[in-house]
Specification:
five-stranded antiparallel sheet, 8 helices, mainly beta
Length: 986
């Protein structure tokens, strides 16, 4: 993997308010939710010492199971830059984005968070497939002090592309982000190329099973088709598969290889099963090309009508794994040790199956979001039930992958489906003892009322328990038509946070410190006296001249919220699954503070804006006597002045005069329409989607709001899938309902890319180009003062053009009995300010100039199989970058080299790994404010063992040492990482 154009650190001190759109749910220190992910699984991409049991079906793999820890080889290619920034800022995120990713393959990302004077409470990645509205949030795991790691699931990597941004929440509630400028709207974009190993055997958007993008034709039985017991004939056409190796074909029925009993020819496979019992069955097709490349297995279910046989009822199958893990990091003298244990177990009969997962980790902390995981699912032909930590995906607007601790029930009656999700979105957290209380600064800190001094306190640092209920009935089987309705209710439980807890209070001498707590020493870090809440209670009970006040509500922390979302979506599949139409909408109501009581009918009299007359009418037209009491609906939604929006419709005259426009501009409405066409080797997608500024779903808190998106894309397959062309046009308008002083900001993105795979023994080529234009439509400077001397201006013009190109060449070389996979990647990115008359560095301008940056990347790698037991990997990369604002310009070159090897011994029972990596930087800067990072070099040496102890029991361990030398600092900084785990399969 080469170094990315986005390697450089992003430095920012962002207020919590600036990121409300991204962190609308979370209390900063505690409640950023994980979606069931961590990075302590077995290594990715490592060969195994012995054949493994069959992998779980795709639909059985959850994001939690598919996120795995990077193997020892992968880490060397993803070293994180640890340069020291200017410490005048609140903090810095160092991150290097990958230059590209592979579809249907896990992707590991790393980030280093360094802060000035506050600890890190949590680091979260928000990611989505390019073109989607909502982001999925995944908590990054702390691999070592300051280093955070996450692995995105293979299902999240699609050829449309990947977008993401990083948010680090500090313990003092401040936030730092990567990228810095409006990260939810300007995320990191990573192109995703087709995976040559999964292009064959994939399942298209319309549900048809195929190899080589529809070249495999299933004649019988069709997926989910029902037959009589005497009518089942398996027939598969190979007419379009010109390069399949007939001797490699395997036909598997219910886990049994029946290839020997099938009739095979160059054009068709047929097989007639005998004594096939009633119930659900499964067919699997496996094959390789003449070059020896394996197709991804293709499987599909069908049913046999009749009574389920006793023999199939009693056939119980099961499998599982137990994996204890340990990791110890010593980074610059700071030690972090994490241990965990996982248990995965599945089994059942044809008519009833179950699967379960359990993870217990030492990272579990009652003051943070849960890190332990519990899950069990039961599956029958008509009902699926998941209990524990579930991650349901109902639709893009309401509930889309958020972790829920509760249950997920799905009733399937062919033409009627009912799905119900209920549980806990966030658990109640009382707050750490040192940050549970504060002195109310907004009222008199201390005052005398007669002879009584009163200390006013408030609660902080807490997080309310948040419950959710989602109901989704659907009509239609989903094969040709489905119409669904959604109801999602999320509400904070006020009683989950107590007012009286075992916490500390910081009291300054200017209030009561010296008067009542003179015997308590002054803390040197806060210059205040730290006393417990119970000490204050005891003093109030013992001293008649002292008292305290602790309100029951409206504390300094986040207020409890209530949210209601209703919606509907519809899917139609036409023209033999080649034409799909999808459309949907959702309407939300959010109350930001349910501590305040529900509105009364009397208060509704003057509720509407501009209505000040208490005449028993709303706006002089609606009689209150005809309206129901809002208190009667409190169980459905808490109505008061804190709700968003106050009125569901836009109130401008143009909207009021046009009913369609009135609906389209509803501030809390989200809707989309998508058409997908698969004709003549073209896969075309057209989409329109819009989300109003007041749309809120606490069960999907990271959806981008106040935005309108139009997109058109096409993926073209040519020359029997040897050439893939991708074209994409996307236009995004922000602030479509004007909330800020800025105009609507428009972003236009155009992607063109192509991949050529000529076949075995020939090189593979990829070429891509991307332009990204962002413009807020402001053409003139604003005058903010006009004196007799010089005018002073504010430059709010924002117009940038980003151009990126990338070229890739892969080639498999056979030499003297060894095989070498060579890869060359070239990438260039330029960000240019499009304002031609910008006066860089001119003091008359009060805002920073638009950014400019460039990056050139060259990377070369070689994966070699020298013998069946000996493999090596060599990676070289160079990244030359320039970036800055105004007269400031910083340039830096990073050069890295990594070499790793692995060797099998003892008839494959022992696998030895080792390697080294080195990365160095050379930075320079120009301009008055330039502050380039210091030059540095880092060397890492690693080794590892994988031992097959007995059948199905293996032990994997690794050890890595790193040393770093920084210019201007004598000596070197050392660190070590030790990992060890056992895995038993049964």
């Amino acid at each position: 993997m080469g170094l990315s154009a986005n390697w450089q650190a992003e430095v920012v001190a962002v207020s919590q308010q600036d990121l409300d759109e991204s962190l609308s749910q979370e209390e900063a220190t505690t409640s950023i939710e994980a979606t069931g992910t961590d990075t302590q699984d077995e290594p990715v991409g490592e060969e195994r010492l012995a054949p493994e049991s069959a992998a779980p079906a795709v639909d059985d793999v959850t994001p939690e199971e598919s996120l795995e820890e990077p193997g020892i080889e992968e880490l060397s290619a993803q070293e994180t830059v640890l340069d020291s920034p200017d410490t005048s800022v609140r903090g810095v995120i160092y991150h290097r984005a990958p230059e590209e990713a592979m579809a249907d393959a896990p992707l590991t990302l790393e980030a280093v968070v360094e802060t000035v004077d506050a600890g890190v409470a949590s680091v979260t990645i928000y990611h989505r497939v390019t073109g989607q509205l909502s982001y999925r949030e995944v908590a990054m795991s702390q691999a070592s002090p300051g280093l955070y790691v996450v692995t995105l699931a293979a299902a999240d990597l699609q050829e449309d592309g990947l977008e993401y941004y990083l948010i680090a929440v500090l313990e003092d509630r401040s936030v730092i982000a990567y990228p810095t400028a409006d990260p939810a709207k300007t995320p990191v974009t990573v192109p995703v190329s087709p995976n040559p190993e999964t292009v064959a055997g994939s399942q298209d958007m319309f549900g048809g099973v195929m190899i080589d993008q529809s070249n495999l034709l299933i004649l019988s039985p069709e997926p989910n088709e029902t037959f009589g017991s005497e009518d089942v004939i398996v027939a598969i056409s190979l007419f379009n598969l010109s390069d399949v190796d007939l001797s490699s074909i395997q036909l598997i029925l219910d886990g049994v290889d029946v290839t020997a009993h099938a009739d095979l020819s160059a054009d068709i496979i047929t097989y007639t099963p005998t004594d096939l019992g009633a119930g659900q069955h499964n067919i699997e097709f496996r094959a390789t090309t003449l070059a020896g490349n394996a197709y991804q297995p293709v499987s599909w279910p069908f049913r046999v009508a009749g009574r389920i046989s006793v023999r199939s009822d009693r056939t119980f199958q099961h499998s599982g794994t137990i994996t204890p893990n340990f990791r110890r990091d010593d980074i610059d003298g700071e030690v972090l040790a994490v241990s965990s244990i996982r248990l995965n177990y599945r089994g059942g009969w044809n008519w009833f199956k179950f699967r379960s997962r359990l993870k217990l980790t030492s990272e579990e902390d009652p003051f943070k979001s849960p890190r332990n995981r519990y899950f069990i699912a039961f599956e029958t032909p008509v009902l699926n039930l998941g209990l524990g930590d579930v991650t349901p995906r109902l639709n893009r607007f309401t509930l889309d992958g958020k972790r829920v601790r509760g249950y997920d029930a799905d009733l399937n009656l062919k033409y009627f489906h009912l799905r119900i999700v209920q549980g806990e979105l966030a658990r109640g957290i009382q707050g750490r003892p040192g940050s549970a209380y504060g002195v109310d600064e907004y009222q008199a800190q201390a005052f005398e009322s007669g002879l009584v001094d009163t200390l006013r306190l408030t609660r902080k640092g807490y997080s309310f328990k948040r419950n959710v209920l989602a109901v989704r009935p659907s009509l239609g089987s989903g094969e040709r038509f489905q119409w669904s309705f959604s109801y999602v209710k999320a509400k904070d439980v006020i009683s989950s946070v107590q007012s009286d807890v075992d916490g500390l209070v910081s009291i300054t001498d200017s209030t009561f410190g010296a008067r009542y707590f003179a015997d308590v020493d002054i803390d040197s870090s806060t210059q205040a006296r730290i006393v417990s809440f119970q000490d204050i209670v005891n003093l109030a009970n013992a001293n008649s001249q002292f008292d305290y006040v602790l309100p029951d509500s409206n504390w300094a922390g986040k207020s409890p919220e209530d949210n209601l979302v209703i919606g509907s979506d519809m899917t139609m599949v036409l023209s033999k699954r080649r034409f799909t139409i999808q459309t949907g909408f959702a309407l939300s109501m959010l109350n930001k503070n349910i501590w305040d009581p529900v509105l009364s009918l009397e208060e509704l009299d003057t509720f509407a804006p501009g209505d000040t007359s208490k005449d028993g009418m709303i706006l002089g037209e609606i009689d209150l006597a005809d309206l129901p009491d809002p208190a009667d609906f409190e169980d459905y939604f808490h109505i008061n002045l804190n709700q968003i929006p106050l009125l569901p419709f836009a109130t401008d005259s143009a909207s009021l005069a046009n009913p369609l426009q009135l609906i389209a501009k509803m501030p809390s409405l989200a809707y989309h329409a998508t058409a997908k066409l698969n004709y003549l080797n073209n896969f075309i997608t057209m989409e329109f989607q819009q989300v109003g500024p007041d749309y809120n779903s606490l069960a999907n808190p990271n959806i981008q709001k106040n935005v309108r998106i139009r997109s058109l894309s096409d993926r073209i397959r040519l020359f029997r899938n040897k050439l893939f062309l991708s074209l994409m046009y996307r236009s995004t308008d922000d602030d479509i309902v004007k909330l800020k002083d800025d105009n609507i900001t428009s972003t236009v993105t155009v992607n063109l890319s192509g991949t050529l795979n000529l076949g075995f023994g020939l090189p593979g080529l990829s070429l891509g180009t991307r332009t990204y234009r962002r413009d807020n439509g402001i053409a003139f400077l604003d005058t903010i003062s006009n004196t007799d001397s010089d005018d002073t201006y504010i430059d709010r013009r924002n117009s940038t053009l980003t151009k990126s190109t990338n070229f890739g060449l892969t080639y498999r070389l056979q030499l003297a009995g060894s095989s070498h996979d060579l890869s060359l990647n070239l990438a260039n990115t330029d960000i240019n300010d499009q304002i031609s008359d910008r006066q860089r560095g001119d003091t008359l301008y009060t805002t920073p100039n638009s950014p400019a940056a460039s990056s050139n990347i060259i990377s070369l790698s070689a994966n070699s199989i020298l013998t069946p037991k000996f493999r090596t990997n060599l990676a070289l990369a160079s990244n030359t970058s320039e970036f800055g604002e105004g007269a400031t310009l910083i340039s830096q070159q990073l050069i890295s080299i990594a070499l790793s090897a692995r060797y099998q011994l003892l008839d494959g029972k022992l696998l030895v790994r080792g390697g080294f990596n080195r990365i160095s930087s050379n930075a320079d800067g120009s301009g008055e404010d330039s502050s380039p990072p210091p030059n540095f070099s880092r060397l890492g040496i690693k080794g590892g063992l994988e031992v097959l102890l007995v059948d199905n029991l293996r032990w994997v361990t690794s050890l890595e040492f790193r040393t770093k030398q920084i210019e201007g600092i004598s000596g070197s900084v050392g660190s070590s990482i030790i990992t060890s785990n056992l895995q038993y399969r049964f």
